[in-house]
Design brief:
By secondary structure, the chain is mainly beta. The protein is built from six helices and 33 strands. Helices cover 6% and strands 55% of the residues. The chain has a 22-stranded antiparallel β-barrel. Strands 1-6-7-4-5 form a five-stranded mixed sheet. A two-stranded antiparallel sheet has the order 2-3. A hairpin with a 2-residue loop joins strand 19 and strand 20.
Length: 680
Amino acid sequence: MNNIRKLALAIASAVSVSAVPAVYAAGDETLEEVNVTVSPLEQSADAVAAPVSVLSGDKLRNAASSTLGQTLKSQLGVADASFGGGVGLPVIRGQSANRVKVLNDNLDSADASNTSSDHAATIEPLLAKRIDILRGPATLRYGSGAIGGVVNVTDGRIPSEQPEQLEGAVEMRHDTSNNQNAEVFRLSNGLGEHLAWYVDGVYRENGDTQIPGKALDREALQDSGSNFNTDGHVANTNARAKSGSGGISWISDSGYLGLSVNHLANNYGIPPGAEPGAPADAAPDPVRIDMQQTRYDVKGEHRFDGDYWDKLLFRLGYTDYQHVELEDGNPGTRFTNNTWESRVELTHGGDTWRGAYGLQLSNKDFAALGEEAFVPPSVTQSAGAFVMKERDWDQWHLDLGGRLEHVSVDPNNGDAQDFGLTSASGAVQYFLGDHQHLSLGLASAERAPVQEELFADGVHVAEGRYLLGNRGLSKENSVNLELGYHHHNEDASGWHAAKLSASVYYNHIGDYIYARDTGMNDPESGLGIFNYTNRDAHFYGAEASLEIPLRDALRLTLFGDSVRAAFDDRIPGQSRDVPRLPPLRFGFALGGDYDQWNWNLRTTRATAQDRPGAFDTPTDGYTRVDLTAQYDLPVGDNNATVFVNANNLLDDEIRNSTSLLRNYAPDAGRSIEAGVRFIF
């Protein structure tokens, strides 16, 4: 009964405006003003039955952080699976890693972040132009890895329109939470009548994360067998990253064709404590990740003149990724991932049905080499074809789709594993008026196991676990049901301009794959053995938001979200709870939006996560208060924006229940982030 009351409280108090980060005024939501990139049919977020959030402009700039998880952690239904200051991956409705697809302009980021929780994503949020978040299955367009959701980051490296003049932006910021300095720039312009170019770059460097209190809690000290701890900071969390891109396009009245190159380098530390063999009273040898990635992209679009076919979209990407794990400065295990991916989509209109047909091909050559490599080299190939259809009649809107996919995972030490996957979805919206509608969606999706789930066999030092794969794993099959309501009237005033968005969902995943804690230890390393296994599970939750306009440009937003998950069967002596779920969150934001400046005060209450899963430890609740303000200064015909963000004002100890390092590395304490941004 207590859990029912908590869920009811989450719905009643509502969840933060999905397009607005934690540090930004609720009144800046622009979901209806842009088409979402997760649909090939150029639909606005309001027209997509699945819940979609869009971050762009100043909202994205102020929310952007050094990791993707930190950037999105205050979004509707999204949490951060942090692994120290250098790693933060998005958790969508309790699902992450191989169930959440992280995309760079609709193609896979193609790094090693899904292989291990200590591997950072190669997405640089400070260079993003917009981020679309789709909560719930998106396998129809993006395949097996999108069974839990999609994060699509658009950076504009390949121009699709001809700039009329030189355009650009420069930004500098400093964050006291880790003494970080970051500088960002972007430039674009036209060359003649048909050519356009683009360049960007970012450099950021930070020290150790400052925290309120000790880094390792009582459980961590007991598990590690070490007396070493730090007070006021998390050791070995300093980092240095740089990234640069260049792109060029040929643009005509009927479309464009362009290419881009990006190179990223990232060197970051892993917090001590989880690895075995740490000295009793001294800091263990520091472990760092030295990451390099070069990415090549080709992108094109052709628009047809006829009445039926709309356009043909083409994308091709090649990624050369590697990182080396440095132990006390010495090279250790090396991970490489060379990936090809292509996507072709053809859209059409019509008097009754609109639709899209798509083909997706990928080839991933992955290897881990060294004494501590726990996954054998393997090649993963996939081929998928999909169709999406939509139509309107009277007050109704209908979406239908289906996908067929084949995935092959071929290791160098055994036979290939082949999986045939089928996905289908349907959603209907009923418009009660011009500005409100109900939606009901049903999706069936399948996911193939990946190389570490199938073939892992060895010690994973950074996670402090012995991972054991299972070549007999079955594919996952998800059935997701979602009911939603949305009201949004930009033209109204007073109470009629209130924005309400709410949804409840239930997701049953047959043969859910997870690393089960066996309760036994590896005799050689002394680490716990985690065996990948299939086990039926169900997820359910609620998300809602209510934004209320007040007098004198003030806005109040009430918010809250909740997700619960449990395995269908029971293992004697073990909890049925799925591990590492985010807690119930709720709170309010009060903000003002004026001619040259705006401000926002946001308070979030996260309850204790007392259902951590078998052999895991619970996390305490926390209250987080953030305040942000920005002021626009006229500079000629343009503006310079000065911004200040005060984060975690209560200096509360925040340990993320979604993180494997929750007992070793809490979030940053009270801090100030300030900077200046100039756009021309």
